[in-house]
Amino acid sequence: MKRQNEASVFFPIIICCFLLLPLLACQSDADKLREAAESGDLTTVNTLLQRGVSPDAVAPLAMPPLIAAASNDELAALNRLLDAGADINQRDSHGWTALMAAAYAGHTRVVKALLDRGARLDIRTGSGKTAVDFSNERGDKDTLLLYFDYVDSNTGPGADI
Questions:
Q1: Per-block mean pLDDT, blocks of 10 residues, the chain (161 long)
Q2: What is the CATH number of the domain that holds 115?
Q3: C-beta separation of 56 from 68 below 8 A
């Protein structure tokens, strides 16, 4: 009787593992790309992109590689992902973009690079904040002044930033 109970407990676990294994294998390249972008490991970023991993690949519950690079001031990795076709305005599960992450962290040079490449200033998080709001909360005058140069080109008609 005890042996039968053990089997009935482990069988569903084994089935779940079997069904989830392909999903986990698919996520590994997305996780590797995010981690490489986050740490500025250009060799790994290049290798994964050359193998065909999408620059926008996102594992469940993880941030996109571009946002990871922006939030960690990894400008070279950010530029490589953009050169490979990453969506500059891609959002994470909270509605954040790479521009918002860079503004929140105070990475002015990354903010400028993203704006130079057309990142939108008028996108809002799920709670309604823009990159400008994050820079304002930080008291980041240099970045706030920078936004004025891009308001016309990096917003939609009638945008309220």
A1: 54 53 61 96 97 92 94 98 98 96 98 97 95 97 92 73 68
A2: 1.25.40.20
A3: no
